[in-house]
Amino acid sequence: MEQIFFFYFAFVIAATSVLVIAMRNPVYSALALLIMFFHVAGLYVTLHAEFLAAVQIIVYAGAILVLYLFVVMLLNLKQDDRYHRQWPMAAGVGMMLFVEAIILTGMKGWTAPLVPTGSETTVEEAGNTEVIGDVLYSTYLFPFEVASLILLVAMIGAIILAKKDLLEVHSNG
Q: Which of 69, 83, 60, 62 has its CA nearest to residue 26?
């Protein structure tokens, strides 16, 4: 029964992720993204990661999607023909990603298992949230810190770009 739910969630996630990039209307694209976020949360529930499912709904479906919609509404996007010229490049990148996925699937024996042995009893004893926090701040501490630095640099860059645009508007007005 779990496999049926897994394949359902996987199919809907794959279909809506294609719709996100294929839809011409950005609001419809954001709605497809919302459906995808909820199905990813459903996938987390089937994996017994209820905390991650709740975070997925609150953070991504709640906050990030609202941010996307605000940006779409503020930009007032119109149809533009220059995006039709990007299909060859998009097809090339898509083919490279497909080949990479096939290569990585073939290298299944080269990687260590993601879940250490005996971790199911640890999760049952400690709880989902505690195990996630323990693994995040011990095993994956360096990638977590790198991701936080990347987000900090992106935030500073956005502030600098917005400040430059704001200065141009005030100097012209």
A: 69
C-alpha atoms less than 13 angstroms from C-alpha of 31 in its C-beta half-sphere = 6
Question: What is the reported pLDDT for 2?
Answer: 82
Hey, what are 166's tokens?
């704001």
Q: Which is nearest to 44 in space by CA: 59, 62, 56?
A: 56
C-alpha pair distances (Å), 86 with each of 79, 81, 89, 90, 147: 14, 10, 5, 6, 29
Q: Do the Cβ atoms of 47 and 10 come closer than 8 Å?
A: no
pLDDT tens for 33-81 read 999 999 999 999 888 888 888 888 888 888 888 777 777 776 665 555 5
Helix residue spans in the chain (DSSP H): 2-22, 26-46, 50-55, 65-75, 87-106, 119-126, 128-136, 141-172
